[in-house]
Amino acid sequence: MRVAIVSTYRPRPCGIAVFSSDLRAALLDADSSVSVEIVSIVGDDPLSHPPEVVAAVRQDVASDYPAAASELNRRGVDVVLIEHEYGIFGGDYGSDILKLSNELAVPMAITLHTVLAHPEPDRAAVLQGLCERAALVMVFTETARRMVVEQRLAEFDKVRVVPHGAPDELTLAAWSDPIGADIARSSLQLGLPSLAGRTVLSTFGLISDSKGLELVIRALPSITAAHPEVLYLIAGQTHPEVIHKEGESYRRRLQHLVHDLDLSAHVWFIDRFLTIEELAILLGRTDLYLTPYRSPDQIVSGALTYAVAAGCPVVSTPYLYAEDLLSSGAGVLVPFGDSSMLAAAVLDLLESPLKMSAARAEARRVGADLPWASVGKATLEVLAETAQEVRHAGTVTRTS
User: Fold this and answer.
1) Quick count: other Cβ atoms within 10 Å of Cβ 354?
2) How far is CA 363 from CA 13, 62, 394, 397, in A?
3) What's the rounded Cα separation, in Å, for the pair 370 and 168?
4) Residue 350: which of 266, 269, 229, 234 has the closest Cα?
5) What is the pLDDT of residues 37-92, one digit of tens each?
6) Backbone angles phi and psi of 259, in degrees to 5
7) Domains and CATH numbers, the chain
């Protein structure tokens, strides 16, 4: 089977690009007879792509989308998978991706990385059109499937739930207990101050104000008063779209808040996009992972997936994906925007070894289902099912 994935792709610093690169590797590992080609959605910066990229679509050039569809039709792929996320496609509300999907002469599936609870009508119409064209729709959780069905984006039997994957390096980190030499090496490799004797809290990912990181910083005075050994690591560069619109203003606000609260000894910024190997080091040394995100509608978080796969106990705001992934006890949920409740939750875990141990054990249990190997097999099954669809005269029917 020949598969084509339409998505942002490495080396673009983007969570969807990382996801698609990992997914491609997982599909190839699941079945060596499969080929997986990439149509990469690119921004303004010229990129040097790996050989699996067979076409590049300039995000804001409408004519590139049907041209990419023609190339995929010409290459004779069996199935196309579109990774859909708001903000990565051009046109009003990302409508240019319809110019590609509507020109495809092969079966198509779509993965929805965001499902909004209350989308604007025009935004909903674009996603409706894409889902109607798709033979199957993939989401990451049962909550997302319920939302897709309730919004009439797709019928229930057209939606498949496939978890977000996590690299093996992270699941291995879940079972490692750092010793002194490992701690020293972690500090050196990540360019950090000494982590010896420190209790490490961390958050990683592309930085933007949607991450709500100031909530943690405002909670730190209460936390460090009781635990002066605490160090909060904020890892990741500012999101490229944020830099384009407002530069580094959000990061500077965070840094000023750290200074104003006299927290320089307790907060450290790692201002770059971390490799998987570096993330394994970071999460392997993390005592408590934090996702203080602002939006209740967030239905997936690659960062939270990675942290749980690495066996990290979590304190998080109750966005949809956190409610799903942490519901069995891998973490604690706190109200949006409430730094005092976040501080209380962190302190409760730090001062209750049994609670911390139970949360870590549950994170390891949940994380055991998240390695890319199992996710790749599940995705390949959905793509094989999609490939049985045949397009005739503008309609899609299933072969027997």
Assistant:
1) 7
2) 27, 43, 46, 42
3) 9
4) 229
5) 999 999 877 668 899 999 999 999 999 999 999 999 999 999 999 999 998 999 99
6) -65, -45
7) 2-165+372-398 (3.40.50.2000), 168-367 (3.40.50.2000)
The full length of the chain comes to 400
Name the residue type at position 175: W
C-alpha to C-alpha distance for 211 and 291, rounded to whole angstroms: 7
- β-sheet bridge partners, residue 203: 234
Q: Which amino acid is it at 69? A: A
CA distance 282 to 153: 39
User: What is the DSSP-derived secondary structure letter of residue 370?
Assistant: -
Residue 397 pLDDT class (50, 70, 90 cuts): very low
How many angstroms separate the CA atoms of 207 and 303, rounded?
A: 12
pLDDT at 161 over 80: yes
The CB density around residue 294, as the number of other CB atoms within 10 Å, is: 16
How many whole angstroms separate alpha carbon 270 and alpha carbon 204?
A: 9
* Cβ-contact 339, 218 below 8 angstroms: yes
Q: Which pLDDT band holds residue 398 (cuts at 50, 70, 90)?
A: very low
Per DSSP, helices labelled H in the chain are 15-30, 64-75, 96-101, 121-133, 142-150, 168-173, 180-190, 213-226, 240-246, 249-260, 276-284, 302-309, 320-325, 339-350, 353-367, 372-387
Instruction: Using alpha carbons, select from 184, 203, 180, 182 the residue that is nearest to residue 192.
Output: 184
Answer yes or no: are the C-beta atoms of 189 and 274 closer than 8 Å.
no
DSSP 209: G
Q: Is the peptide bond before 46 cis (omega within 30 degrees of 0)?
A: no
Torsion on CA atoms 110, 146, 400, 375, rounded to nearest 10: 60
pLDDT of residue 187: 63
Paired tokens of 87: 């903000």
Structure-block tokens of residue 38 = 């990439």
For residue 163, pLDDT beyond 60: yes
Q: How far is CA 351 from each of CA 89, 287, 343, 357, 379, rounded to the nearest angstrom?
A: 46, 12, 12, 11, 41
